[in-house]
Specification:
The complex is a heterodimer of chains A (112) and B (111).
Chain A: E1 5-7, E2 10-13, E3 19-24, E4 31-37, E5 44-50, E6 53-57, E7 64-68, E8 74-78, E9 87-94, E10 102-103, E11 107-111
Parallel strand pairs in A: 2-11
Antiparallel strand pairs in A: 1-3, 3-8, 4-5, 4-9, 5-6, 7-8, 9-10, 9-11
Chain B: E1 3-5, E2 9-13, E3 18-25, E4 29-37, E5 44-49, E6 53-57, E7 60-65, E8 70-75, E9 84-92, E10 99-101, E11 105-110
Parallel strand pairs in B: 2-11
Antiparallel strand pairs in B: 1-3, 3-8, 4-5, 4-9, 6-7, 7-8, 9-10, 9-11
Classes of the chains: A mainly beta (112), B mainly beta (111).
Chain lengths: 112, 111
Amino acid sequence: ETGVTQSPTHLIKTRGQQVTLRCSSQSGHNTVSWYQQALGQGPQFIFQYYREEENGRGNFPPRFSGLQFPNYSSELNVNALELDDSALYLCASRTSGGNEQFFGPGTRLTVL
Amino acid sequence: GQSLEQPSEVTAVEGAIVQINCTYQTSGFYGLSWYQQHDGGAPTFLSYNALDGLEETGRFSSFLSRSDSYGYLLLQELQMKDSASYFCAVRDRGGYQKVTFGTGTKLQVIP
């Protein structure tokens, strides 16, 4: 059974640019959530996708958007990058009724 | 909305027992989870409580009191590898069952 994978591992962008982060869910998981984790903080919920539809969103502006594909892989897109967007971005997958979220290793984004 | 409080840091001796507390405020509660995260790593699931009481999984136990909006994670026979951050997380009763994480407790195990 393949776990959750994310790409890239690290990324450096400049302010104002756009970025796309990718996540491949664990086999059999139809629900994926994206989190932003600043250094020394807990993961902050960005949004959740279930069967290719966004069905929940945290307190993040519209420049944070996402997609989920039929194979349940997903993307997080961030437009007009700001310095404060520098963080670890985590995706987590689960079954629709599952209590356990399986996290990927994360993408470390640095905005200069 | 949801808010969770847990101590920022705890230090304990190898072989000892440590308890990490979590209090929460939520508009709709479904369950409380605990996750472990080593520096530079991803959070990994430890336990989930939906009902009052104690759940035991090896050296780790988790407790929930819904009436007190309180839970704790108990780690026994501490090992050096247990040094990590521990997060409590509340699962919403809302439609999509959003999970909100606390700010984490950094546990340092010393010899």
